[in-house]
Amino acid sequence: MDFKEKRPLHIAVDATCWSNDRGFGRFTRELVGALAARGSDFRYTLLFDRLPDRPVPEGVAVAAAKSDKDIGQSTTGTSSRSLDYIWKMGALARATRCDVFFYPAVYSYFPLLAATPCVVCYHDAIAERFPDLIFPTKLNFRFWQAKTALARLQTRRAMTVSQSSARDIEAYIGIPRTKIDVVTEGPDAAFRLIEDPSVRARARASIGVPDGAPFFVYVGGFNRHKNVLRLIAAFERALASRPDAHLAIVGNLSGKGFWDNVPELQAAATASPALAERVHFAGELPDAQLAELLNAASALVFPSLFEGFGLPAVEAMACGLPVLASDRGSLPEVVGEAGLLFDPEDVAAIARTLLAFLADPAMAARLAAAARERARRFTWERAAELAEGCFRRCAGGTP
Predict the structure, then answer these.
(1) Taken in order 14, 19, 22, 25, is the CA torsion positive or negative?
(2) Cα–Cα distance between 54 and 290 in angstroms, integer?
(3) 8 A C-beta contact, residue 46 and residue 15
């Protein structure tokens, strides 16, 4: 083997989602951090539309296109990225002369216009499954389809985050299963069991939940496919039998960047005095504060119509919290024996699951123990190991 063959494989990474607080940004930051910590077989260059406002891992190179917009400004609501933006990012990518170009999310894909082999991460096919719930106009969907078609043509290896998503990517996007590599996700170190009762009491008090009252937590976005409206309706039904219960809804309420239904959710949650008193919109919380709230809760409720992975479920399980989840998409695969499943389109079924959980403390304790154990399966170190295999296959020309 000559020196050239021994050199580290150079991976350039589309890091335009780096500052995104939602799933794509977290996935990019955590995965790159874990990759950078693994050793010298690879070297990484992060490509930004603008210089990042968050730190990057030590030893990772950085380049920026100095665009007049970033990805958040360019793809919000009914807006789209300009041709100038796409050209600048493509030119920057070509200039890196990497061995493999990695897009951590097809969401931010831009054409590379080079023969460089590419790994594209398709987190799910939710946009293809539920276009009416994801896009405000048909034109937005057509742009998405065009972008995804270009990405598919440039994909030597596809990456995704669950077996469920791999099946959907083959069925809806048309990428053969033999070209798809499955990695995983994991919780940040902030998500852990907290035994201190004063911390739990403080977390309850911060959102107005009385001491000793059972309460459920929802964590995530407010796109229509997240199904939070049905969760509120189910919780209202459950209140008829358990008027002491509370529901905390955690997530970004600004509506920036995604077509969501926050006003509709807030109206539903104040439709009756009982709901107004017991549904708490906590807004977006830092990881440490969110971990405290999860430790204080009774269970996480995840009613999504479909998820590619469902990181809030793993974060909750790492805090020893059972998960009451939709029986669709990746959630049964992720939650396993650490929770209960329900039909997300059946409000009565969701309500019955909430009540059944509260009615059986012994079952709740078993699920909490199972949650702690199951969370150990999901780590960013494991994700990085699997991602490296995907990069090697891509560089080696594996079909």
Answers:
(1) positive
(2) 20
(3) yes
The string of pLDDT tens digits covering residues 244-281 is 999 999 999 887 656 788 999 999 999 999 999 999 99
CA pair distance 125, 7, nearest whole angstrom: 36
Q: Rounded to whole angstroms, what are the CA distances from 192 to 3, 233, 292?
A: 44, 31, 9
What gap in Å lies between CA 102 and CA 99, rounded to an integer? 10
Which superfamily, per CATH, for 197-375?
A: Glycogen Phosphorylase B; (3.40.50.2000)
CB 387 within 8 A of CB 183: yes
158 Cβ neighbours under 8 A, 6+ residues apart: 119, 120, 121, 122, 169, 175, 179, 180, 181
**CATH topology match: 3-186+379-395 vs 197-375:** yes
Helix axis angle for 361-375 and 311-318, nearest 10°, is 110
Nearest to 245 by CA among 218, 221, 292, 278: 278
377 secondary structure, DSSP code: T
C-beta atoms surrounding 208 within 10 Å: 12
Q: Which fold has domain 3-186+379-395?
A: Rossmann fold (3.40.50)
CA atoms of 324 and 291, how far apart (whole Å): 17
Q: Report the alpha-carbon distance of residue 147 to residue 71 in Å, rounded.
A: 15
Q: Cα separations (Å) of 220 from 22, 105, 238, 357?
A: 8, 18, 22, 21
- Where exactly are the structural domains of the chain? 3-186+379-395, 197-375
Please, are residues 284 and 262 in contact by the beta-carbon 8 Å criterion? no
With residue 281 as reference, give the H or E element that holds it.
Answer: strand 279-283
Neighbour order of strands in the sheet with 339-342: 279-283, 246-250, 215-219, 299-302, 323-326, 339-342
pLDDT digit string (tens) for 210-240?
999 999 999 999 999 999 999 999 999 999 9
